[in-house]
Amino acid sequence: MSGTLVLVRHGQSEWNLKNLFTGWRDPALTELGHEEAKDAGQRLKAMGLHFDIAFTSVLSRAEATLDHILEEVGQTGLETIRHQALNERDYGDLSGLNKDDARVKWGEEQVHVWRRSYDVPPPGGESLRDTGARVWPYYMHDMQPHVLRGENVLVVAHGNSLRSLVMALDGLTGEEIVAQEIATGVPIIYKLNADSTVASKEVLEG
C-alpha cells in the first residue's frame, strides 16, 4: 500500500458568499470559511493523520485554509509547496461578476454552459478541461511520487482544480465530473495502490 492523498477545498470565501465568479481573483475567507477550515483540521486530527508534505495554490483563501488545518493537526512547520497549477479555474471576463447579473447579460443558457460544460470556456477564461490540462501534469510529476513513496500528502485547493484531480483519480467522464460538487472544508481521503490506482476513498463530512 502506498501513502495517503488528502484533498480539501478552501473554506467559504467572501465572494462565495456574495455569489460572485471568483477564479484567480483573491478574496479572503469569511468567518464561516475560517471555521470550516478549522473543522477540517479537527476531523483530520481525529483520524490520527500525520502529513509529510502539503501543496496549495498561490491564492490566499487556499493558503489560509491550509494554515488553519496545519495548526489543528499540530504541524505548523510542515514543508509546503505553493503553485499556480493548483489555482482555481480562470473565469476570464466573468471574474468578479455576480452570477445573476451574468445571466442577465449573457442569458441563463449561455452562463449555464460556461459553468457546467466540460470543454467550453467563458470569454478570456478556462474550461474545466483547460484547468485539468495544468493540474494533471503537476499532480503526476510533483505530488503523486510522494504518495507512491508511502508519504501522506495534503492538498488544499479549489473547487475546479480539485474536480480535475477527482476526475482523474475516480476515472470519471467530462459529463460526470461537472455534476460533482466539491464541498468547502470537507476532506476527501484517498489511499493509493503502488500502481497509482485508488485503493479507497473516504469523504469526511461533518
From TrEMBL:
One BP term from GO: glycolytic process
Pfam families the record matches: His_Phos_1 (PF00300)
Site location (Transition state stabilizer): 158
Keywords: Gluconeogenesis, Glycolysis, Isomerase
Any GO MF annotation of the entry: phosphoglycerate mutase activity
Listed pathway(s): Carbohydrate degradation; glycolysis; pyruvate from D-glyceraldehyde 3-phosphate: step 3/5
Annotated positions binding substrate: 9-16, 22-23, 61, 88-91, 99, 115-116, 159-160
Catalyzed reactions: (2R)-2-phosphoglycerate = (2R)-3-phosphoglycerate
Active site, UniProt feature: 10 (tele-phosphohistidine intermediate), 88 (proton donor/acceptor)
Annotated CDD domains: HP_PGM_like (cd07067)
Cross-referenced SMART domains: PGAM
Alphabetized NCBIfam families for the sequence: pgm_1 (TIGR01258), PRK01295.1 (NF002339)
HAMAP family registered for this protein in UniProt: PGAM_GpmA (MF_01039)
Family assignment from sequence similarity: Belongs to the phosphoglycerate mutase family. BPG-dependent PGAM subfamily.
Job of this protein: Catalyzes the interconversion of 2-phosphoglycerate and 3-phosphoglycerate.
Protein name, UniProt field: 2,3-bisphosphoglycerate-dependent phosphoglycerate mutase
Species this chain originates from: Phyllobacterium bourgognense
